[in-house]
Amino acid sequence: MTNIHLLGVPMEEGAGRRGCIMGPAAYRTAGLAEELAALGHSVTDLGDAQPEATGPIETEYTHLKFLPEVAGWTRSLHAHAHALSQQDVLPIYMGGDHALALGTVTGHVAAAAELGRPQYVLWLDAHSDFNTPASSPSGNIHGMPMAFACGLGGFPDLLGKPLPAKLDPTKLCMIGLRSVDREERDLLQSSGVQAHDMRAIDEHGVARILRPFLDEVAQSNGLLHVSLDVDFIEPDIAPAVGTTVPGGATFREAHLIMEMLHDTGLVTSLDLVELNPFLDERGRTARLMVDLTASLFGRRVLDRFTTSY
Ligand SMILES: [Mn+2]
């Protein structure tokens, strides 16, 4: 049994279109807490986080959108993640756009550094979100959180203080990539991120990609943060996202990853991001994300009783 704490993150300022603010409500409506409790876990819903108030944030990159708002969320979520990691709980951050990882990942990396344990991140996303302010074509900050967490240069003062600890890019594993900007690709490759595109899944299958990474986490007694973007999944079955890219992970590929993560027992924190309920079809994407989360917390194929779709 795991002591799970749900924290809603109704933020949408990092994304290019509105709607992710409704994400936490959609997860509650789709029964995330009830599904996890039915698997035997203790579930506490902490309600929604609030952003800190910030003044204007200085930067030479004037194309960065909603900078004070995103900085306010980053500071708040960094503090929440740091505090939650010091309790015997497994936090699930119900987003909210992917800029929430600016705070959640850096908070967990800081706490892991204090513990003297390596922090790993599994990034399940069509995008690598490894732009810096200088490389970003759009100025949408949800395309930058991993570059920020790894300590790349050019970022304004999002955190209100220097990063307490940087994420080691070689401990960052990305699966599902199929939309990466040109300069972003160069940054990814030069930094040593374990980046796997969709072709790697096509050729090898998710199990052969994921297992060596999970073995590495286990052998080094690492902590594992998982960040699951709706657009990791094929848009035909997960339409509720503002950044759909064709050719995503199938239903079974996504579930297999979750089942393997459960088998290892290594996951210590989880982001569910980019769900845009305004774009959903009768809640099917929210239900799929809840379903995947249930697989991560122990639901097996043989527990999936007959239903109509
Ligand atoms: Mn994405």
From TrEMBL:
Its EC number is 3.5.3.1. Pathway: Nitrogen metabolism; urea cycle; L-ornithine and urea from L-arginine: step 1/1. One of its GO terms (biological process) is urea cycle. It is an enzyme of class 3 (hydrolase). One of its GO terms (cellular component) is cytoplasm. Binds 2 manganese ions per subunit. NCBIfam families: rocF_arginase. This is Arginase. It comes from Aliiroseovarius pelagivivens. The gene is arcA.
